[in-house]
Design a protein that fits this description.
The chain is mainly α. It has two domains: 127 residues, no CATH class; 134 residues, Helix Hairpins (Orthogonal Bundle). Helices cover 73% and strands 5% of the residues. The chain contains six helices and four strands. A four-stranded mixed sheet has the order 2-1-4-3. The radius of gyration is 40 Å and the shape is rod-shaped.
């Protein structure tokens, strides 16, 4: 059963150091709480991801148990069908013995009949009984073929049963371990979140929480090439220039998210600045 890649197991999966490095590189003066707000957003993103993963694990474990239950149920149904098949075969074989007994009695009676008409009637009855035997023998043959198929399925299932139980047990243990890892990581993240939230100005924290709850859990947005990357609305030129400094806390006029500017790679900075200014002037 597939899970997230190994890198997603790292604390603070989203690359906080890399993001903040692009924002604050070069010793540039920045707003003292901007880095904290960005990191707080990434912690909240990761916590939300962990909550979803933790919530999905019971369903995954239940699906595994259901697979094993279905496997055992199918095996039991086939065993019941085989037992029923064998019972029906015995009943059919019993019917043949009863018919054979009647045929034997009819043959003895052939020597006691008085007329040719009675003799022919007795022969006709014997032939009918023999036809009944052939019909029942065909049914027995069908039952035997069905039994062979059922026995094959049962042998195969029984040979796989131990491996199937081991597979489910191993996968269930893995899911439990993953859940514990997720819960441990979540606990550490929540402790760090508490520290970061306590370090923020109360008004800023209230803005952050209000926007986060109203905007699908995302209260902070990067600005690239003159656009808010969350709502994709172009910033006014003056607002764009202020955001680029990262020296003030500014919210998007469209989505109210707290904005920050990410420096483009050095080789493309000139082109990015030009396109950003053009977009902002539209």
């Amino acid at each position: 059963m597939g899970r997230r890649p190994a890198s997603a197991r790292d604390p603070f999966f989203l690359p906080l150091a890399g993001v903040c490095g692009m924002i604050f590189e070069g010793g540039r003066k920045v707003h003292p709480e901007l880095k904290t707000v960005i990191e707080l957003q990434e912690v909240d993103r990761r916590v939300a991801e962990l909550d979803a993963q933790i919530g999905s694990l019971p369903a995954e474990a239940a699906a595994l148990e259901s697979q094993l239950s279905d496997f055992l149920h199918t095996l039991e149904v086939r065993k019941e069908r085989l037992a029923k098949n064998q019972k029906e075969r015995r009943e059919l074989e019993g019917e043949i013995k009863e018919i054979q007994a009647r045929i034997s009695k009819h043959r003895d009676q052939l020597y006691e009949v008085k007329t040719n008409e009675q003799y022919r009637a007795m022969l006709h009855e014997i032939e009918g009984e023999e036809g009944n035997i052939r019909t029942i023998e065909d049914k027995i043959l069908e039952k035997m073929m069905e039994a062979d198929e059922l026995e094959g399925h049962i042998r195969e299932a029984e040979s796989r049963l131990a491996d199937e139980k081991a597979r489910v047990a191993k996968e269930t243990a893995r899911l439990r371990a993953l859940r514990q890892e997720d819960m441990d990581e979540r606990e550490k993240l929540l402790a760090r979140r508490k520290e970061m939230a306590a370090s923020l100005n109360d008004d800023l924290l209230q803005v952050y929480e209000r926007v986060r709850h109203g905007r699908g859990g995302v209260a902070v947005a990067a600005v690239r090439e003159g656009f808010c990357t969350e709502c994709h609305v172009a910033l006014r030129p003056q607002l764009y220039n202020e955001v680029r400094s990262n020296e003030v806390l500014i919210t998007c006029e469209s989505c109210s998210r707290i904005l920050y500017y990410v420096e483009p790679p050095a080789e493309s900075q000139g082109a990015s600045d030009a396109s950003g200014q053009a977009a902002a002037q539209q």
